[in-house]
Every structure is written in C-alpha cells, then in structure tokens.
Predict the 3D structure of the following.
Amino acid sequence: MQVDYLIIGQGICGTFLSYELQKAGKKVLVIDEAQPFSSTKVASGVINPVTGRQVVTTWMAEELMPFTWNAYTSIGLEIQQQVIQNCPIQAFPPSEQMLEAYEQKMNNQPSFIQPIAANDIIDYHTYFYFNHGAVAISPAWLVDLHALLKGWRQKLEETSALLEESFDATQLQIHATGITYKNIQAEKVFFCNGVNTFQHPLWEKLPYSFNKGEALIVDIPDLPQNHIYKFGITTLVPWYDGLWWAGSTYDNRYTDALPTDLFRQRKTAELGMLLKGKFTVVDHIASIRPATVERRPFAGLHPTQPAAGILNGMGTKGCSLAPYFAHQLAQHLVNGQPITPAGDVRRFSATLSL
Ligand SMILES: Cc1cc2nc3c(=O)[nH]c(=O)nc-3n(C[C@H](O)[C@H](O)[C@H](O)COP(=O)(O)OP(=O)(O)OC[C@H]3O[C@@H](n4cnc5c(N)ncnc54)[C@H](O)[C@@H]3O)c2cc1C
C-alpha cells in the first residue's frame, strides 16, 4: 500500500494533521489503537485566552482565538457537527489579590477580562459559596472533543485512511527518501501518538516534561450549562449528558496514569465547599499530558531523518495549539512555508543530531 504520509495517533494532533493533509490533496493513513483515556479524551476542551495566577494572556492568544474558531468550524462542516461553541468563563477569584489581578487586566487592549453585572453575581450566590466577586473571561471556546474524534475517525474509515491497531515500532524502517511500515510505503511518517512518541529513539532526547491530570465527572442538578466556572484550581466545565467535568491537577511526580483516591477525596471535599446544592460524583478520569519543558510544542521534521516528523508536546493547550501547528506543518510539507520558530522541532537540531 502506498500513501503520501503515515500518521501515528488520532488524538487532537493526528486528527488535525490528517485533516489538513487530506485538505491539501494528500493521501494519508492514520494508525490508532483507540486508547480510552488518551489525553484528548480526558481533556475538558476549553480554549482559555488567559493563564495562571498573574492572569497572563496565553501565548499567541490573539492569533489563536480566531484561528481555532475557524479551524473547528471547518472540520465540523466536514463531519457535519458543530464542535466548537462560545462559552465564557465565569471566574471566582479565591482572594482579593487575585480579584485585583483580574481587574488590572480589564484595562488591557484588547482585554479578555470583563466585569459581570451585579445582578448576575447575586444570582451566582444561589449556586456557589464565594467571597471575592466574579469576573468573566471572554471570549473563551469549548470544544466537543469526543464528537470531533468520533466524527473524524468515521471520516477516516470511510476514506480507507484508518488502521485500527497498536503501532509496532520494530516494523518501521526509515530511509533517506521515505519509510516502510509492514506492507505500507510512505514519503514520511508523523509521530502524533502523545506521550508514547517519546519512547521512540528518534524523539527520546527531546526535552519533554509530562504531567498527569485528573477530573471528576459530576452531576450538579440545576446548574446552568451556559458557562465554564473557575474557582482557583478547580474548574467546572459542561460535559456530556448534562454532567460536569471538575478538575484538575498538574502532577509531574505521578507513578501511573490511573485515577487516584487522593484526588477523588480532595476534589470531592473542595466541591462540597464550593457548591451550595447537592452533587453526585459519577465518574473519575485521568491521563498524562504530553507537555514540554519550555511549554512550546514540537512540530516539524527530524533534522537528520527528514522522512520522520512530529506533531506533539501540546501540554495543557492542545485544543488551541494542535490545529494551528497542524496547519503550519501541512503548509510546510506542501508549500515549503516556515513553521513558527518557537514551535519548530528543529530548534533542537543539536540535541536530535547527537
Ligand atoms: C485532565 C486534562 C485536562 C485537559 N484539558 C485541556 C483543555 O481544557 N484544553 C486544552 O487545550 N488542553 C487540555 N488538555 C491537554 C490536551 O488534552 C493535550 O494537549 C492533547 O490532548 C494532546 O493531544 P495528542 O494528540 O498529542 O495526544 P493524545 O490525545 O494522547 O493522542 C494520542 C493518540 O495516539 C494513540 N496512540 C498512542 N500510542 C499508540 C500506539 N502505540 N499505537 C497506536 N496508537 C497509539 C492514542 O490512542 C491516541 O488516540 C488536558 C489534558 C488533561 C490530561
């Protein structure tokens, strides 16, 4: 079997890379073993233009916000589903200092922080315990990752572009002008298989720094699902079937990828202190984020083995960075356009050439 590009993994990276390459007229084959708790399947799907306690504008947010809206709308048309929606974040600062940090950012141009009407703040006292006011982070997008992965997988199946199996690295041969994998020949192979990518000798030297994230899936009757609610380290995000995703953690000292009793107990106790009404924990999920030391992705071709490429290292921002860098990588392959240097894996040429 001959294809232009072989892609390993159909998380958010493999989904957008295969979409972009097919759109450019290329023949792709995606290998994916459908792991139930991949990072993309556990993620809440939020695209938040601000980050952290200092309320800093997220890297490239002004470019990424419109780009990602258009990217998800376009792929949504392909699979005939609306996979992105505007879902402002209502942030309840845990301290006066944090409220001040938000308020200072309201004067930025453009500002992603807006005041919330006094009446709406009063209404929120029906649902939540909070003492330091509330502000809105807007615009913020919410992506339906499960619908996207499922819809795109179906599309790949329909075009005979999906191989549902575990990738066997011993079967991959990389030559100067192409690759072979079992009976498949391709011009290039792309590693989009999340944390597993870094087990391969080609990429093991890259400065990755994984972290584990957990979330509870919670039933909170009557809480309106038109916003994301953020309370310090706890975020409540509309999930499926009227449920809520409550997370998360950024743990780089984990021993395995499984949900922990400690998280379940702590998050349940926190929710008890935040929510005025009854709630029920119905599930508990966890995964490992393929994050990097620099918090910048790895996109592009290997410096000494250019028949191999990578789209990975999206960390906590896969929903916004993956579509953007998938587009850049496809344009790089098809039209020779450059990749943003801070995301181009060739910034590690020296390390990868050792
Ligand atoms: C708790 C949590 C919450 C998060 N929330 C957000 C959020 O709100 N917004 C945001 O932007 N990001 C969020 N993230 C981060 C985001 O999920 C990741 O950046 C992104 O999903 C990484 O996508 P990926 O395609 O690189 O990897 P993955 O999603 O891990 O995909 C890898 C794919 O490769 C396949 N695969 C792996 N190994 C093999 C193999 N050997 N053979 C065949 N197939 C294989 C897997 O089945 C999988 O489909 C969150 C992450 C976690 C853990």
Notes: The chain has two domains: 2-42+146-207+293-353, 86-141+209-289. The CA atoms of residues 195 and 290 lie 5 Å apart. The chain has a mean pLDDT of 97.
